[in-house]
Amino acid sequence: xxxxxxxxxxxxxxxxxxxxxxxxxxxxxxxxxxxxxxxxxxxxxxxxxxxxxxxxxxxxxxxxxxxxxxxxxxxxxxxxxxxxxxxxxxxxxxxxxxxxxxxxxxxxxxxxxxxxxxxxxxxxxxxxxxxxxxxxxxxxxxxxxxxxxxxxxxxxxxxxxxxxxxxxxxxxxxxxxxxxxxxxxxxxxxxxxxxxxxxxxxxxxxxxxxxxxxxxxxxxxxxxxxxxxxxxxxxxxxxxxxxxxxxxxxxxxxxxxxxxxxxxxxxxxxxxxxxxxxxxxxxxxxxxxxxxxxxxxxxxxxxxxxxxxxxxxxxxxxxxxxxxxxxxxxxxxxxxxxxxxxxxxxxxxxxxxxxxxxxxxxxxxxxxxxxxxxxxxxxxxxxxxxxxxxxxxxxxxxxxxxxxxxxxxxxxxxxxxxxxxxxxxxxxxxxxxxxxxxxxxxxxxxxxxxxxxxxxxxxxxxxxxxxxxxxxxxxxxxxxxxxxxxxxxxxxxxxxxxxxxxxxxxxxxxxxxxxxxxxxxxxxxxxxxxxxxxxxxxxxxxxxxxxxxxxxxxxxxxxxxxxxxxxxxxxxxxxxxxxxxxxxxxxxxxxxxxxxxxxxxxxxxxxxxxxxxxxxxxxxxxxxxxxxxxxxxxxxxxxxxxxxxxxxxxxxxxxxxxxxxxxxxxxxxxxxxxxxxxxxxxxxxxxxxxxxxxxxxxxxxxxxxxxxxxxxxxxxxxxxxxxxxxxxxxxxxxxxxxx
Length: 739
Fold this sequence. Notes:
By secondary structure, the chain is of the alpha+beta class.
């Protein structure tokens, strides 16, 4: 009885099984009971956080709720033996990677332990939340960690001052961090540990360092027992639109280590970011790493220089080497495999099969997501992303099987090995240009196979052994990285994981090519296609949302005060609205004048007595083609005031007092926005610097949390598994102003 078809199916299912469990390659260390006063006590840290958060209401900066959190935080700081100082100031900061400036009144809490003089180690976390959720993970976990670390370190001999900063206003645009840079204490800082979160679970990643990175990596490597970090992530993070307090601090050139958990982003910046959802293991991991690095840096700054490339293996060991050596090794491997592919006549058809597999995999995955997306608009994978990921990987396997069994049928395994590793290293060379420290993932698997090729001159099966060792190393390193990327890019595009996953799986398929060609090509291709179809059927059948992973769903009431016309706005992932929403009118997808984001909109009844913020121009000056306009804000009940200017407005700076901040140089396009948050905006004077002689027309937005009484039917009709995320349910007024 011929069994190749069955074996092919089992092979594909085994590969999908391996991809399904790859997230387990980087496990979260278990929370434990501290056995001594020198260990991080997760239970004690969580209890403090519970007392600080109180009723777990949102507490954005300069709000009544934030006042309560701050008073409770002060009590906890004193309770662990700290002597906090309150820094109360109105500060402004540029919005990094965007054309904007934001101002707010912030109240930072600062406490120092250890010697009175010397260069300082700064540990930073922010205690404000967004206006949407309680912020137990972001950044309550960081606050709780710093309190527990402070309680431990103050009982130990310290060689230099260690300062703890609990800042306010990070969620508004890193305003508290900017305020701290005006604090005299900041002049003595030379090292920074920053704590953040983009979720509520998972291992805590050290995802950003100062550059050059040899010194922070040296400290991290020698201090941390369960490291989760890699230099590809640190480079890629700099290319992403995200930012943390580190963006404000980096101008000082401090040695920096930035830590965050990223598991289950669906709860991030939402009511779901609560204490019950915060994984005790993640809090333990954050505490263990922070305490270890703080102890190490408390002894002084490492003297290492230059740049390192690094990655953790299974969350237990950190592999690192100088970046220059990595570049040399990458270049040598690239030359060596180019020669090997040329000698084996694999440069033509061999590279075509590998490249074609990656391209076809991407196309099939895109087609699958598009087809399912037409039937189920929105993030249909949000509740159970594993099924969509497996469908994407099944599509990638189908593409590879089709080319290996078809176009590549006459190619030998040796030729395909050489072609694959040459393509892999070529991709590594591309990464070296965009994210040079990411080359760490492109060295060890091809090196293992290359050593096998060299050893095969003496040992008959060395090349095959080297190939399988390379497959294993690739899975343990790049496979684990893909697992983390799945968490990071959980909003899509999902098809992006097809080429990434295929890079991990393709070497195994190459080793199994003799099995693929034992059957007719159409048989192997048919099996691959069936596996992919079953994968997409499972992805299409899985519920889109769940109690844990809910749909983004923010309801807004927007009024243009000049016309009195009001509009309902629903911000979600463009999933269809429930039928019960039809009672509110005819809904359509569209845009509001102040945003490029598409949303569901319908006509709404106006709210009586609602007024937009009043902006009074109280001063003008001009010099050298640059105008400065001074305005005074009358909030008229708004909690947030925003001036949104067109893309050609050429606003170069804005702010108040000593905090006149420039527009971020990294922002090359988009509207300009000048924001003020909180109670203290009422009566605040701000300056706006414009490099344009002609007047500019701006939209004045005033936002209040909560909705009018007329929203009650919509709130009742909101889907069961849906909640606001990133922005709260709000009542917004929209006026006009000429500057």
